[in-house]
Amino acid sequence: MDALLAERAAPIQSAHIPWSSLFRYRSIWGLMIGMFCLNFAIYFFITWFPSYLQEARGFSLTRLGTLGMVPGLMGIVGSQAGGYLSDWLLSRGWSRTAARKTCLVGGMLMASSIGLSAFVESTYLCLALFALAYASLSVVGANCWTVVSEMAPTPGHVASISGIQNFAGNLAGILITTFTGVMLTLTSGSFLIPLAVAGGGCVVGALSYLFLVDKIEPLEAR
Questions:
Q1: Which of 100, 129, 134, 156 has its CA 20 to 30 A from that of 17?
Q2: How confident is the model at residue 11 (pLDDT cuts 50, 70, 90)?
Q3: Are 131 and 113 in contact (CB under 8 A)?
Q4: DSSP per-residue letters across 143-182
């Protein structure tokens, strides 16, 4: 890891790679799709989660402020655990590809549990699924930005790829808020479709990180 950091920090003669040509890399599209699916689920927590607990689960403001914070707290744990686990695997001799993708793919697959939360009757089981989903999404979040710095063709492209990835993620944030509102209107207040779509999206994100994103190494300059 130290050798990688030293190599990336050393001054080099960077190949001229226009910003627009970054979209020619399959891995860039894989990162974009993965981030889109990640944020599609995360922004449900940011925007509609309190409304879901009150309207679908009958939470009072008191329960919302106590039990409702459990998924958010687990998100903090997941973020720390995701970063630690990925680097621990790396220190144990795993390749960067194996270490990072284990957290990216595994995290997205576990985060698909958000799709099951609308189908269970038990409020506590529902919260447990939400907590698992938020923690798993945070595991992915701890690694997706690290991967950008490790895959940029030159150090001068790290910020550009981060911006491209973040653009895709913010599109998802816009879409989930509108999509959920429309579905609630069409289904007389049911959250089933938005949550199921978010869960399915997590599976799509896992497949994107697994198959579209290539080896976790600097992309070949074109």
A1: 100
A2: very low
A3: no
A4: HHHHHHHHH-SSGGGHHHHHHHHHHHHHHHHHHHHHHHHH
Whole-angstrom CA distances from 146 to 73, 79, 106, 115, 124 are: 22, 13, 16, 27, 34
Instruction: Find the largest Cα–Cα distance for the chain.
Output: 61
List, for residues 18-44, the tens digit of each pLDDT value.
Answer: 888 899 999 999 999 999 999 999 999
Nearest alpha-carbon partner for 137 in 64, 214, 82: 82
- Kindly report, residue by residue over 44-84, the tens digit of the pLDDT: 999 999 999 999 999 999 999 999 999 999 999 999 999 99
CATH of domain 24-212: 1.20.1250.20
Please enumerate in sequence order all residues whose Cβ is within 8 A of that of 16, keeping only pairs 6 or more positions apart, or say none.
Answer: none
Using DSSP, state whether 133 is helix, strand or coil. Answer: helix
